[in-house]
């Protein structure tokens, strides 16, 4: 028994490619996750406040608001900074990974991703019975 029950976990997938969004949605829905899709960073920011996903996958190369900017905006929000953000990119360079870390990403997956890769990332970052932290540091 590992991780929270998939059906109770909301996953947001942000990508300007319809093909990538549909692939991720298919993989995640098959595994029982509640999937929310967004076409770009602006679309995603509106949906994040409405749906409060427990994990976010974001493409780096998008028009208007790219993945680095989207991730940074999410992590700057006090209510969202603990939400895991996983970057998706066809670029696998050290610079790209470092830039993702600087923006606040929790993990970096390269495309084409696999169903196993997506599910592993969720298991790694979403703890069982994920509840908002109320302790102070």
Task: Lay out the secondary structure.
Elements: E1 10-14, H1 18-30, E2 34-38, H2 41-51, E3 55-59, H3 67-76, E4 85-89, H4 94-103, E5 107-110, H5 115-125
Parallel strand pairs: 1-2, 1-3, 3-4, 4-5
What is the CATH domain class? Alpha Beta
**Largest β sheet strand count, sense and barrel closure:** 5 strands, parallel
- How far apart are the first and last residues' alpha carbons, in Å? 30 Å
**Given the C-alpha coordinates, what overall shape results?**
globular
Number of helices: 5
Detail the poorly predicted runs: 130-137
Count of domains: 1
Characteristic key phrases:
single chain, 137 residues, alpha/beta, Rossmann fold, five-stranded parallel sheet, 5 helices
In words, what does this structure look like?
It is a single chain. With 137 residues, this protein is of the alpha/beta class. It has a single domain, classed as Response regulator (Rossmann fold, 3-Layer(aba) Sandwich). The chain is 40% helix and 18% strand. The chain contains five helices and five strands, in the order βαβαβαβαβα. It has a five-stranded parallel sheet with strand order 2-1-3-4-5, with helices on both faces. The longest helix is centred in the first third of the chain and has 13 residues, at 18-30.
Briefly characterize the structure.
This protein is α/β, with parallel strands linked by helices and 137 residues long. Helix content is 40%, strand content 18%.
């Amino acid at each position: 028994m590992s991780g929270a029950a998939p059906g109770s976990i909301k996953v947001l997938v942000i990508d300007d490619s319809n093909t990538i969004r549909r692939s991720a949605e298919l993989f995640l829905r098959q595994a029982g996750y509640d999937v929310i899709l967004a076409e770009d960073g602006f679309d995603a920011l509106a949906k994040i406040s409405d749906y409060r996903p427990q994990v976010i996958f974001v493409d780096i190369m998008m028009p208007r608001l790219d993945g680095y900017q989207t991730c940074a905006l999410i992590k700057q929000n006090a209510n969202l900074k603990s939400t895991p953000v996983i970057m998706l990119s066809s670029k696998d360079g050290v610079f790209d990974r470092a830039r993702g870390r600087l923006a606040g990403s929790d993990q970096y997956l390269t495309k084409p991703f696999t169903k196993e890769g997506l599910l592993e990332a969720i298991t790694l970052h979403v703890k069982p019975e994920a509840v908002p932290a109320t302790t102070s540091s």
